[in-house]
Amino acid sequence: MIYDIFFSICQTEVDGYLPSEKTMWQNFFDQVKWADQLGYKTAWLAETHLSCQVQKENPNSVIPHFKGEIGLNTDILQLAHLIFSQTKNINVGSAIRNILCNGGPIAHAEAVKTFLSLHALKPNEKRILELGFAAGRFPFSYHAYGIKPRDAVDEAAWDVVKNKAFQEATIIMLRLLRGDNISSQDIGPIYLRKEDFRDQMTWNKVYKLAKEDHRRWDKESILHFPYFVFEKVGVIPFEAPLEYLKLTIGSHDPETQKLANQILPTGVFNLSITPGDIIEETHERMKKDFHPDGGAWTRSHMPRTALIFLNGDKNLSPELQSQKARELSQKAWKNYWVAMEKTLDPKKVENAVENSIAGNPEEVAQAIVKKYHPDDRLMLWFDFNNHNNEEIKNSMQVFMEQVKPLISKLHEQKR
């Protein structure tokens, strides 16, 4: 089992306290340096674009009741240079980088290649950038860059069109990273297909609109109009060393996962709440779809978030440790749902707590062994709805010093 760590850097109000941006960054760097010393393999950072607070001033606010910013990291590449300069062993990952915003896939390919070229200049550097990429959580972050409905067809089929735009961006970015010199003509046509839609009614509506708009169509598909149109380009630096880069796609769509792996080896993100049968189906499918240059598919190519609430205070009994950890979990989720929706749905809190892992070291170890495969790769999340820097660092330490050995012992007993 591989133990990574996830940092949300979420600047939200907790118990009436809203840290400054400077405090958030100071706490983060303190924590990531501690994670490096404790032996976590990769520090994954949430990435967010454009202010949630400012977006609340517009119609259709996505999180109207949320106070603060969902995340402060807007550029993993700048942060990675700083993290690598202050640590010795830990890798750095983005979870995730939105490749539809900030100039689109060409700009992202160029920025990544520049980063790799500079990173490789360090003597004896072996650490890698784990580039997780996706379309982003909030539409306003890419709407500002023109990725939004352009006509009635796009409007009616937006969920599908957005995915096609992401496929388009994925092909462009990965081919440019690979070193191809391409124009948009080299991408090939992308189609909206009947099977892309969840229900027949929506497909019928989109199909009718496409015919009226004289789009290229047949009985089963409609031509997707590309968002990225450009003459032949080559991305510099040409000699950027890809051995320092590992790719992971944040898409649940099997077609998009396969598409990426036709170009470069690309792992897959799945959340802690993803049903187990989908996790296993993805692993089986990726055994044949994973790009051959990446070697054999292993479970480590699918990092999984694990939300941890842990109390290992040696001054408390195991029962009190467990109670404190569960209280922290329930409190964090209550604060979160109130912040997101301004209401408190007990069922949502109950489900969220159930999907978290909370307890004393032995309980957390047992829960992880029960929930995850021995060869899984976990992105352990300790800072959820918590600004107590020392408490977070303590949980990180208790996990590596107490929980990790217990997990190893339990796995040995099961063999």
Identify the CATH class.
Answer: Alpha Beta
What is the fold-level CATH name, i.e. the topology? Answer: TIM Barrel
Please tell me the overall pLDDT: 93
- The portion of residues assigned to helices is 40-55%
Proportion of residues in β-strands: 5-15%
Q: Which regions contain 5 or more consecutive residues with pLDDT less than 50?
A: none
Number of helical segments with 4 or more residues: 14
Order of helices and strands: EEHEHEHEHEHHHEHEEHEHEHHEHEH
Q: Please summarize the sheet with the most strands.
A: 9 strands, parallel
For the terminal residues, how far apart are their CA atoms? 14 Å
Query: How many domains would you count in the coordinates?
Result: 1
Radius of gyration: 22 Å
Number of beta-strand segments: 13
Helix and strand topology:
Layout: E1 2-7, E2 11-12, H1 21-38, E3 42-45, H2 52-55, E4 68-69, H3 76-86, E5 91-98, H4 104-119, E6 129-134, H5 140-143, H6 152-156, H7 158-178, E7 191-193, H8 200-212, E8 221-223, E9 245-249, H9 254-261, E10 266-268, H10 276-289, E11 303-310, H11 318-341, H12 346-355, E12 357-359, H13 361-371, E13 377-381, H14 389-414
Parallel strand pairs: 1-3, 1-13, 3-5, 5-6, 6-9, 9-10, 11-12, 11-13
Antiparallel strand pairs: 2-4, 7-8
